[in-house]
Design a protein that fits this description.
With 83 residues, the protein is mainly alpha-helical. Helix 1 crosses helix 4. The radius of gyration is 11 Å and the shape is globular. The mean pLDDT is 86.
């Protein structure tokens, strides 16, 4: 449960502090998810963003959903998307 809360708080903080859409959030995603937390590699983040651009919806939410699913499965995807 702690990891799901971490996912929620991480994406809530990024979404509350970044303006300009999904492309403006990419450096924040890279810094937080790859460098600080180690949840993803650079290649995985690049792949997630490519898939997020191809699927319907907001890029930032799609990236959060895929990252949550990658790290914690179904419930991780839910909590990351809510954040």
């Amino acid at each position: 449960m702690r990891k799901n809360l971490d996912l929620f708080l991480t994406f809530a903080r990024i979404s509350a502090s970044c303006f300009g859409g999904g492309y403006a959030m990419l450096p924040f995603f890279q810094q937080e998810l790859v460098e600080k937390r180690g949840w993803l590699t650079d290649e995985e983040l690049l792949d997630l963003n490519a898939v997020a651009q191809c699927t319907p919806g907001v890029i930032a939410v799609n990236t959060a959903t895929f990252c949550g699913y990658r790290t914690r499965g179904f419930w991780g995807a839910i909590w990351a998307s809510i954040g």
